[in-house]
Fold:
Amino acid sequence: MKRLYNIFLIVTVYFQAMALKAETVATITSPNKNLVVHILINGEGRPGYNVESNGKNLVSESRLGFLLSDAPQLARNFIFVNAVERSEDGTWKQPWGEWESIRNHFNELKVRIQEKTPLHRQLDIVFRVYDDGIGFRYEFPEQPTLKIANIVEELTQFNLAEPATAWWIPAIESNREEYLYNKTSIDEVGLAQTPMTVKLSSGSYISFHEAALVNYSAMNIQKVEGRHLKAVLTPSSSGPKVTRALPFVTPWRTLTIASDAPGLYMSHLILNLNEPNKLGDVSWVHPRKYVGIWWGMHLDTQSWASGVKHGATTAYAKKMINFASKNGFSGLLVEGWNQGWDGDWFANGDDFSFTKAYPDYDLDAVVAYGKTKNVSIIAHNETSANAAHYEAEMGAAFDLYKSLGIDTIKTGYVSDAGGFRVRKPDGSIVFDWHEGQASSVHHLKVVTEAAKRHIAINPHEPIKDTGLRRTYPNWISREGARGMEYNAWGVPKNPPAHEANLVFTRMLSGPFDSTPGVLSLKGRDNSDILSTEAKQLALYVVIYSPIQMVPDLPENYENHLPALQFIKDVPTDWSDTRVLAGEIGDHAVIARKDRASDNWYLGAVGNDQSHMLTVKLDFLSAHTTYLAQIYRDGSKADYRTEAKHSMIIESRKVHAGDKLTLPIAPGGGEAIRFVAQ
Ligand code: NOJ
Ligand code: CA
Structure:
């Protein structure tokens, strides 16, 4: 009897396994055939996919689907309807960027699936497979039995086929995107933000992220068990995480895949998955370097609020304009110019005016003075994450700035996570999340309203970058990481490995207004910044942003004039970029070519250890002699001692193909300008 029961059990398990076994309903490969994606449906009608790279499984069967709040889940009982393939190969130009010309070459597969249950709801799953990764998204076609999708969760999985190491920061935590990177095994990942980078045991690198986050909630990644990861959408404070009328498409879920860390950075996947420029001529968007009435506030020697320490006075702004003009910097950011900073501004963004200046700051006079010196004022709009108040005020503010010829605004959304205030259609105010659906709608509203007035936007405490700068090139930069401000007052300060982590994680999403270049290497109360002087210069090349700040106080730059020369010379707009070497959290060496000349620039950063790196100058033009102006760590330089200021500046002639050795001190870096002769 027992034997019979055992046989019965084995047969049942066998049939259950057969029922769950996934079958491939369609397949798509990358143009070079290295990447293969299979679309699967299992015996329960659950849709899924897997990914192979060079014949090896990278992502094993991973399910797809949705939980809805007011209708049955979209997860089981699907049958395959049809699959449509298409391919594209073309190039497009970035109006500004790391590369001038970008190739967009992919094979696409659109698979329609339909429920066999009475609702017969349909879903399209679209995969675009590139040589450097894959993107997929869901498309909800118009249909009689689903008019509005109230999504409480997206059931997208990413099940890694091998053990892996992950570099990640926590999601939906109070400091939003301003965290230091964790390096853990994949099974120790908690709830992580994207981009999240993993290195598989066989050596492949994958960066998980998303592209074209429009009118949707941002995707985070959570470990379920072992190597099994799943998408978790950022919450909404008022019901479903996403509400959309059909038809609509979700953002692309992306896996950038490379055989080494530099390969991840060289990918154009995220930009390629975004739609082309919708703004037309954007010659009014100006990459530039800018100074600021800013660092003094973070040092607490000046204040945003009115009073004796008020930084934004007419007299000080004119002094800063003179400093900018003398050194060839064409922008001045003025923070604390507008009324609303007195009292607890962190808590009550309601008090901010975006048009009325404090009495000791004459906006018209400062703008006019700047014009005489070729220095544009960058307006500052801190909102304290009160998006509702900002939306009510921004039209008038942008009109005013346009009338003054102000072409760039730095916005800010300081508040703890969960403090992003938005107005619902019924007029009520709710507290939401910095990366929820309402925030994605708000940010695009700001960017498109600004575009109408030919103004560029640089948000701090922003929504993450998903490549929308391609579609809206006035979205010129953003924060969205731990920047220089943490070196003024942060506990802890940014450690030496921070940037070597950022290059292969956060920087895969797009520009970062990190504000490098504090040459005094001192934060608040004379505290030490954990960097050498040469590294501060290298950051202008390593951490990309088309607008780069020159943040230190003018009197500090006066004490470091030889180093200031590199900051004066380095451009912020590039026609080409090459990552010459790199390992996450260890080092990164990047070369970039100036858009406006034949000159190249190189930046190298390390971590808390010393490095002796060798790079080949094969990016330089053949038959051209270059004068390499080198700014490198002195032999005793060390971020832990006053020798952090020890820097050797030397020049030598170099040619394409030469090898250069880069000695990097603990906490150090190196910057080089290659001047074509
Ligand atoms: C935080 C921003 O990151 C910083 O740059 C700015 O100065 C303050 N908020 C005040 O708006
Ligand atoms: Ca910030």
About this structure: The two ends are 92 Å apart (CA to CA).
